[in-house]
Specification:
Layout lengths: L1 H5 L6 E6 L12 H12 L3 E5 L2 H10 L4 E6 L5 H14 L5 E5 L14 H5 L4 E3 L5 H21 L1
Parallel strand pairs: 1-2, 1-3, 3-4, 4-5
Amino acid sequence: IMQLAAGINWIPHVLIADCGSSPASLTSVRPPVQALVQYLQTAGFRSAVCQDWQQIQHKLKQQSVDLLLLCVSSELSDLEVEQRVQVLQQSQSQAPIFVWEYQQDSLGSEPDLAPTSDWDAVATQVFPASTSILELLAQINRALIERRQQSRQS
């Protein structure tokens, strides 16, 4: 407990928002997102998948999240992207926000995603569908190390 209080055994918390899921399928997490959760847990991170935007807002306001990862697919409409960007802008979160534009299927068809510039308004980094989970994990690790160092300096 003393080490945890001193921050020696800090375990970063990554909140994953599965933006490819429709409200009707809130209980189903997409396979690429499930794989990502397994990689994060194996790497020693705490992670949770959230599909409810009110819950995401609440967690961001509590500042209990070290990094927010939005997993987006081609199923997301321009209107949904715009609404989510507005919610994130209003949250004024200090946590880095990553956007991973994953492909739902691996049959080689390129996804028809909302323009990256929509996400640029809130994202620290946007990763295309060609980004592997291992590359994404390395970038998450880098961002969390930087955030930890900045918080120690303040």
